[in-house]
Design a protein that fits this description.
mainly alpha; about 85% helix; single chain
């Protein structure tokens, strides 16, 4: 979820003309990863690489969120949106973990995880109203997504 959220926020920064801020967050996260990797891998082994990755994406996301909220001035809605997106990601992760546990064939498990995980994420994001009504109206199946989200359709 950290990498996905980092990519989303960096894309939003680029969309509002803040490419330099997106680049700064990636450079900060990458620098943290380099330093953490050099320190942690010799001391704790392969787990150090995993921790370095988490630090990289977490710190990069933190800076992207800070840059985006500074530019837009939307601190309260930002926290709410982050919580909703994180909850949707958690629900999707649980769904994918269940499929992985139940299905023994690795190829079938991967395929079902991708399909079912994407559907569960989309459904949970719609139910939690992660997207605004205006954003949903831009989607190809806007009538259906508006109905699932509980927005009244007054097009």
């Amino acid at each position: 979820p950290l990498l996905a959220m980092l990519q989303i926020y960096n894309s939003m920064l680029q969309a509002v003309g803040q490419s330099k801020s997106a680049t700064k967050s990636l450079l900060i996260g990458g620098s943290i990863k380099l330093i953490a990797t050099l320190i942690l891998i010799p001391t704790v082994g392969i787990w150090g690489g995993a921790v370095a990755n988490l630090l990289c994406y977490g710190v990069g996301l933190l800076f992207s969120v800070i840059f985006y909220s500074k530019f837009t001035g939307s601190y309260k809605s930002l926290v709410k949106n982050l919580a909703e997106i994180t909850l949707s990601g958690g629900i999707m992760t649980l769904a994918v973990a269940v499929i992985d546990y139940i299905v023994e064939n690795i190829y079938l498990s991967i395929g079902l995880s991708l399909l079912f995980g994407g559907c569960v994420y989309l459904a949970s994001a719609l139910l939690l109203k992660v997207f605004s009504k205006t954003e949903l109206m831009l989607l190809p199946f806007s009538k259906i997504t508006l109905k699932i989200s509980g927005y009244k359709e007054d097009i």
